[in-house]
Amino acid sequence: MQHKLKKTALVCSRLFSSFQASQPTVIRASFLHFTADPAKTENVSHAYQYIEDGLMVIENGKVTSLKTFNEKDAAIYSKIVDKRGKLIVPGFIDTHIHYPQTQMIASYGEQLLEWLTTYTFPTEEQFADKKHAQKISKFFVNELLKNGTTSALVFGTVHPQSVDALFEETSKKNMRIIAGKVMMDRNAPDDLLDTAQSSYDESKQLIEKWHNKGRSQYAITPRFAPTSTPEQLQLAGKLKAEYPDVYVQTHLSENKNEIEWVKSLFPEREGYFDVYDHYGLTGKKSIFAHSIHLTDDEWKAFANTDSVISFCPTSNLFLGSGLFDLETAEKNNVRVGLGTDVGAGTSFSQLQSLNEAYKIMQLQGKQLSVFKGLYLATLGGAESLSLDDKIGNFEEGKEADFVVMDWAATDLQALRQSYSTTLEDKLFALMMLGDDRNVESTYVAGKLVYSK
Predict the structure, then answer these.
(1) What percent of the chain is predicted at pLDDT more than 70?
(2) Phi/psi of residue 108, each to 5°?
(3) How many other CB atoms sit within 10 Å of the CB of residue 241?
(4) Which DSSP string corresponds to 377-423?
(5) What angle separates helix 196-210 from helix 160-173, to the nearest 10 degrees?
(6) pLDDT at position 174
(7) How, if at all, do strands 25-34 and 48-59 pair?
(8) pLDDT the model gives residue 113
(9) What backbone torsions phi and psi does residue 387 show, to the nearest 5 degrees?
(10) Rounded to whole angstroms, how far apart are CA atoms 446 and 288?
(11) Which of 203, 213, 274, 387 has a CA positioned 20 to 30 A from the CA of residue 424?
(12) For residues 404 and 396, is the Cβ–Cβ distance under 8 A?
């Protein structure tokens, strides 16, 4: 009899847990999300939806509905999370970031090539120790979530264990993360070199282990052309052909000295982009960070191959690399995402990235609207990573990654917002003055993963 009672209690407990799991999460707040690129719509207001008093329903980690709040909803839903006075936007998407460089962010005084030698390589050597990789991974993931970033395209180091440590940590939070082991078989310290064959073998093992496991995905990751031999790039291209669903991430035309170096190493190629194209590393899921100093032919090649650029404003300014030409990317229909590029980038906050992006455009006599900016940080990032069927806005069926934001987190912000009379001005003030202090909480797949 006692055994039957225990069995009955266990069944009831499981049924109750199942009932709890199936209960929707319902949130009331102001909502903003994008349905199109504001730069490609005749009327900007048709590119986004703003609901001042809205209600979002989430079930099984996905958005079921988003609508204007109605008093009848209070009777329909037994529990509504009340975030009135807050702004909810889709989780920010970072299309280029180096997690091993978290500990060396804001290192003084060099441009790209010298910066790599002075700071980056010594730091990355520490990731041979998986315990160190686990420590930095944990800090890195918390920093992403603290800044409202729920998805990212991430560089590891040459060590396979660096990628394992990261994916193990992001899987705990159920984050949609793309990452890869750096491939680097020349022009770097001996302790950071692999070989063409070992980079192929180790990357293949990591693809088999992590790609499309949960919300984890893999990126083939040659650091940049100067640190890979033709043999390594050839095998990277072979991997891409064998696993066409995986991503490619690398760097391109960030620094003028770098471009000259590539010309000397690959004199048979027509240019920097052609190096990657020759080895089969361009395409819809190939993301090239920076791409500042492109030729007209390279812009055409980007368009013809449907390759992607990651715009990294804080890094480009910090290293003195140059000013990215967003307008030319738009004219050539090249997809662009927003990247922090930590640690050359100086902030995990995509609001800070947009702050600097605005200034980069101003220096070129151009403008970045707040709507284009927030689009780049959300739906634009999803489109650049070919993930807009899953994340990037609040359309029905999308994965419910989102950020609850304070309009004003400081006295100065509060004063500024008190004099804002339009949505556009309120958002612009948030974009220019905001940072992690404005992130009240972050949700991944409908679950609270960070709270201030």
Answers:
(1) 95
(2) -75, 140
(3) 9
(4) HTHHHHHHTT-TTTSSS--TTSB--EEEEES--SHHHHHHHHT--SH
(5) 20
(6) 98
(7) antiparallel
(8) 87
(9) -120, 15
(10) 31
(11) 387
(12) no
Measure Cα distances from 43 to 10, 36, 47, 67, 326 in Å. 58, 11, 8, 22, 20
- What amino acid occupies position 327? E
> Radius of gyration of the chain from Cα atoms?
23
Cα–Cα distance measured from residue 77 to residue 23, given in angstroms and rounded to the nearest whole number: 10
Please identify which residue in the block is written with the tokens 């440590």: 165
- How far out from the chain centre does Cα 134 lie? 20
Residue 215's contacts (CB-CB under 8 Å, 6 or more residues apart) are: 171, 174, 175, 176, 177, 399, 445
**pTM higher than 0.90:** yes
Alpha carbons 327 and 239: distance in angstroms, whole number:
33
DSSP state of 286: E
User: Are residues 380 and 353 in contact, defined by beta-carbon separation less than 8 angstroms?
Assistant: no
d(CA 438, CA 86): 10
Within 8 A by CB and 6+ apart from 365, the residues are none
Structure tokens at 185: 């078989």
What single letter denotes the amino acid at residue 218?
Answer: Y
Question: In one letter, which amino acid is 413?
Answer: Q
Which residue's structure tokens are 């202090």? 437
Sheet with 439-444: strands ordered across: 62-68, 48-59, 25-34, 81-90, 402-406, 439-444, 447-451
Amino acid at 135: K
User: Do residues 336 and 376 touch, judged by C-beta distance below 8 A?
Assistant: yes
| pLDDT band (50, 70, 90) for residue 19 | very low
